[in-house]
Amino acid sequence: MAFNSTNEYMGAVKRLASIDNVPDGVIGLFTNYTMKIYRSDEESQYSKPMLWIGMYIALASLICIFAMVGDLYHGLRTRKLWFPCKYFKINAASLTVIGVAMKLPVDLSAAMPGNVDQVAKLGSMAFMCSMMANLLPSLATMCSEELLANIVGLVVLVITLVVNICIQIATGVVSNEEKDRIYKMVKPGVNTESLGTNENLNKITATIQVTLLLMLLIIHICSSLAILKSKQSIDSKYQHHARALKDQQSGRLTLEGLKQHVTKYWIMGGTGSPQFITVCSATTSASGVICVLSTITHIYTVLITSSKLKSKNCESDYQWSMLVILVTQFIGVVVGTIAPLSRCFAALNFKMSIKRSWPNHINVFEIESYWIEKLSDWKKSSIPITFRSYKLTVVLENLKSIILSFLIEVQEVVVKNVTCCASDAGLEKNTHQQENYEDLSQYVLLHEEKELHEKTLKSLLKSMNRLIQKQAEKRQPNNLMRLLKKSSGFEGVEKFDNDHVPTISSKKYLDCWSLPVVTLTAIVVSLPNIEKDIAKEFLKSVSEAFTYVTLVDESLNATSDYVSIQKAAKKLWLEVGIYHKWFGHELNDSASEPEVSVRDILQWFSDTAKDIVTKVGSTKSGGPNDDSIYRSICANSMYRITETVMLSNQANINQVRQEDLFAQLSSMISDIVAACLTNLPEAIALKCHSSKIEKREADVHAAAQLFGQTKQIIKLLQGREPQSLNADDFPFIHKWRAYLRHPSNFRSSSKECDPE
């Protein structure tokens, strides 16, 4: 390990000692400094990795910036100018990355001698303010346990940051440039302002940023306490409207009725979104204002020191990486201000101040119950830990009551102040509502003291129509449409299975829509004489159909009796549709000879299926990962279908060509798919509803997308639905088969067809 400074110093002392007239006391004095210089060299050696730690800080800052830019892009793409948090959220990972990005402010010991070093440290605090303001709406996306854990993590991080900065202000780590401090030590009476330096500028800036950080932390805590009860209130309203909509729905949904249904849930999902509710609150507007103040302070600091920054004076152990950190986090401060500032203006546009306008403006001094309800609940509840000492229990209960009473008062003061400021800014809003939107405005799920501006309601409806139109234009299942147009009726639903064919498995399984589609497709794919282009197009059509058939199955046949059948069908489709196999057998090899007869193909499938069921029956089934149930279900389906096809063609089975079988089976598939997809409106309507408040907006968005994609399919099939089939029987394939066999007396006999 080389210590150049120590060696040079020792050499200089030796040369000084060689001079005869130098007193020994002087030599001893210089020798005493050797250890200090050695330690300084040692510290310099140990601090060499600090350059790369600085780059690590810049990388962590860059990750946070990319996440914020992702939220900006998502907001612009979805035209939500209140920029919901999709990528940049409070969680364990983001808090860890933010902690790395905040390494400079929490570094107590590293000297910051250069101007770039000082401004970079101050810039980190401004960057933290921007990130906190961006993260506020993400609090609403969490359940109570996650919210508690994450807000505690944020509090610990911010308090640590604030305390460390206060220590650095006191110790002088945050101060003016080192050379200015040295100059003042040499000439104590000099005025540093004559040198173009304000010795208190950095301390004042740091104090301002610390104050703003604490204000943002208080806002986060206040918002967290309100969010829990606020979500309960909104959820109660949602459930009330959902029950009312369910009661209003009678019979089958038409295309127009389905659109109205999606529209109502779209409004409830959009206005009942936890993030939307949080953005509408006064605390979000306040956080935006604080973020802007922090940004202005940082920009002012950079501008006033710009002449010194140009010298790139990076003298700390972080070296030139400080300049990289300064530039990166400055970009982050500017970028991070966009979303909070936009939310301030968006919140004013969202809310109509009917209940806040004169003469009722005095209501701003009465805060809503959900702000303090959680604290009140904690105050009224008893301590969960029991103590043997009665006196100790009484003391703790009284102490808890005093603390929570104080916190309730603090919460009220904070909320009243920010609400008063926000209401003053929004007083000039108009209070009229057009009659066209009166029937839809009842589905707006805001708190009682707020009403949605008509412009925002229009924007919500436009965004839904735009999404539906986009899906209708770009995501149309054209191959599926061609398959459905081949279906002229629903005879294939009846013909694919015959009750005279015995079940070879020990257990009788129900039928779902997807399993016969996959089984019939496996037979079609195995036909060697069918042209490759025709077979390829057919497989594309079935692949598109399978997506929607599975959706109907999982939405409307979600009982435990059907789940195992649906899982088996999905697993089999992976083999058939993707790998062109059936239980490991190459489908093209099952009948590799072009001259093979239709009878031989069907018989091979029937015999193989029977062997599989026999083997499954002779082995003991294992745990939940055992695939014996899957093999038994799929093999039984193949056996019944092949035996049914051979039975229906037994008079001329030897004369049936592969092309004829292809036409027969593809017709069955198109009929089954058509019958299944008559349930699409009900499946989409069911998809609109979600029991979890955090997922409702995403679920109704997916439902609107699905509606746009399938609008033409619904329109095509709506006129072909059997009129005498009960509305409750449409989701079940066995009900369809019973109806198609006895359409005249189905209403009276359908109950007898229920599976055992």
Report on the architecture of this protein:
The chain crosses the membrane at residues 50-69, 81-102, 122-140, 147-170, 204-228, 320-346. Keywords: Membrane, Transmembrane, Transmembrane helix. By secondary structure, the protein is mainly alpha-helical. The chain has four domains: 4-44; 53-232 and 272-350, no CATH class; 351-474, no CATH class; 479-676, no CATH class. 67% of the residues lie in helices and 1% in strands. It has 31 helices and four strands. It has helices at 4-17, 24-32, 34-46, 50-77, 92-101, 103-106, 115-135, 144-171, 178-186, 201-248, 255-271, 274-279, 282-304, 306-309, 321-350, 373-380, 390-425, 438-441, 454-474, 478-485, 491-495, 514-525, 532-556, 560-578, 598-618, 628-648, 658-677, 680-688, 696-718, 733-741, 746-749; strands at 351-352, 451-452, 581-582, 585-586. The strands form two sheets. It has a two-stranded antiparallel ribbon with strand order 1-2. Strands 3-4 form a two-stranded antiparallel ribbon. It starts with a helix and ends in a 7-residue tail after the last helix. The model is unreliable at 182-186, 352-365, 425-436 and 748-756 (pLDDT under 50).
The percent range for strand residues is: under 5%
Quickly count the domains: 4
Cα shape = elongated
The helix fraction, in percent, is 55-70%
Note the gap between the termini: 84 Å
Poorly predicted segments: 182-186, 352-365, 425-436, 748-756
